[in-house]
Design goal:
5-stranded antiparallel beta sheet, single chain, mainly beta, Jelly Rolls, about 130 residues
Length: about 130
């Protein structure tokens, strides 16, 4: 059994605040070869995940916003925004799932936010993200 307590989350937020990308990951899986990749992502306000997509056919991605709020944008192939919404606390959306090829970005709007990300493995760093 593995428990994640508030002390670990506070440390993760602290790490995010000192990161150039203003976010930090806590891997919940044992290896990049695991069939299911699970991670907690702590973000602090201003963290922005650039528009990207996952090009391999098994690279769907789901995240659950557990704390705070994030803005999610979905883009067309031309780079134009086709959908935009806020997910997380005090919204109607807490779970977002992207299909392979969905071009998306995420921005932390609240002072801090916590997301649980789940995706199919194995993880290959050379195919982590593709940019338009």
């Amino acid at each position: 059994m593995r428990l994640i307590d508030t002390h670990q989350l506070d440390a993760l937020y602290e790490q995010a605040g000192h990161s150039a990308r203003l976010r930090a990951h806590l891997l919940m899986h044992n290896s990049h070869q695991d069939k299911v990749q699970r991670l907690l992502i702590a973000l602090v306000q201003g963290s922005y995940v650039d528009p990207h997509f996952h090009e391999l056919p098994h690279q769907w991605e789901m995240f659950i916003v557990m704390q705070g709020q994030v803005q999610v944008c979905l883009y067309g192939k031309d780079g134009g925004i086709i959908n935009q919404f806020v997910a997380g606390e005090n919204t109607a959306i807490n779970v977002v799932e992207f299909s392979p090829g969905d071009i998306h970005s995420v921005e932390c709007l609240s002072p801090r936010a916590l997301m649980m990300e789940v995706k199919e493995g194995p993880f290959d760093p050379s195919f982590a993200k593709a940019f338009i």
